[in-house]
Amino acid sequence: MAHPILVLCLLAFSCILATAFESSPLQDFCVADTSTNAVHVNGLPCLDSKLTNANNFYFSGLHIAGNTSSSVGSKVSPVAIAQIPGLNTLGISLARIDYAPRGVVPPHTHPRASEILTVLKGKLYVGFVTSIPESRLISKVLQKGDVFVFPIGLPHFQQNVGNGNAASLSALTSQNPGVIIIANAVFGSHPPIAEDVLSKSFQLDKSVVSRLQTQF
Ligand SMILES: *[C@@H]1O[C@H](CO)[C@@H](O)[C@H](O)[C@H]1NC(C)=O
């Protein structure tokens, strides 16, 4: 039998770890009140709970395939705090992703969420890259019904490698996961990162950097 104090400490420690990112709410819910200009601290201010109704916890339309006719051949349909105000403070969200044949979700990271993805339709090549010094690519080809996890913060990608259209559903561990698409962040920031920085960083000729900058 473990000492009860030790058990308590272990429990308390695991609580600290578990709440390091998105803390457990101290009320049943805190439906986001998007009409106020109040200061936001880790979420949005709460609507008076007496004024809430089922629609604050509801979204419709995730059965509809997104329009994939973009340059990357994919469409992300998020269901996060912006779509469901009742997700405020709860630390979860969903996203449907549709892919044209060969379509990609380009390498990106979610600064505030781990992601668990399942393939609804088609075949996807997915992967993520670990931190330096390994910078190891961990990747797999997924079939319908397969599930894959992208750990928080790590750059990851998906590509439709099947013959027809593909679709996936992701759950994320944040009401507001955030997304940083690597190429857009590096070559498409506003204002742009100085050409010399990018030229040295990527070991590219400045003309190539300029061309990449115009594309993002
Ligand atoms: C999809 O988007 C493209 C470009 O934005 C548009 O031309 C096309 O009509 C859209 N298709 C559908 C089915 O909405």
TrEMBL record:
Entry's Gene Ontology molecular function annotations: manganese ion binding
Q: Which Pfam families match?
A: Cupin_1
What GO CC terms are in its UniProt record?
A: apoplast
**Function statement:** May play a role in plant defense. Probably has no oxalate oxidase activity even if the active site is conserved.
The UniProt record lists the keyword Electron transport: no
Using the record, list the residue span of the signal peptide; answer none if the entry has no such feature: 1-20
Q: What are the cysteine partners in each disulfide bond?
A: C30-C46
Binding, Mn(2+): H108, H110, E115, H156
Q: Which residues form the Cupin type-1 domain?
A: 60-210
Where the protein is mainly located, per its record?
A: secreted
Which terms are listed as keywords in the entry?
Apoplast, Disulfide bond, Glycoprotein, Manganese, Metal-binding, Secreted, Signal
**Would you identify the family this protein belongs to, as annotated?**
Belongs to the germin family.
Name where it's found.
Secreted, Extracellular space, Apoplast
Q: Output this protein's name.
A: Germin-like protein
Indicate which residues the UniProt annotation says bind oxalate: H110, E115
To which species is this protein native? Answer: Quillaja saponaria (Soap bark tree)
